[in-house]
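Friendly challenge for the regulars: who can give me the structure tokens for this chain first? No prize, just bragging rights.
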Amino acid sequence: MRPIPPIEEILPHRHGMLLVQRILSWDAARATVSALPGESGWYAEADGMPSRIGIELMAQAIATHVGVTAWERGEPPKKGVLLGARSYRATRAHFPAGRELTVSATRAFSDESGPSAVSAEVGSPASTSASFAVNFSRNGS
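First reply, four minutes later:
Bragging rights claimed.
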């Protein structure tokens, strides 16, 4: 396996919209990234990052999985479209600023024509704070 690339080589997000900091691990079925909610982010509230932003954190973990597995094959990252989320559950209202989060995405189903199903979760090393199941399509199809 090649060394882990910087997240900026995998995700196109920039200017405050890149909410994950680095790739922690990946394999054919799963990617895990880290996120560090900031006190001055566009999303910041008095208690930290609202847990609803967890959906975007998980979407970026999914995009990381798609991108890093393509990168590993020497291919450019593929664009995707989030089609919908099911069963988003958060156990807290906010993710505290300055406390590192781990965000994991695990592929449940994938078809080469584009459609995929993924489960994802946001947490700390000790517990899960939010989770959901999502359907998305690569290549905007």
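Residues 54-72 form the longest helix (19 residues). The mean pLDDT is 83. Your move, everyone else.
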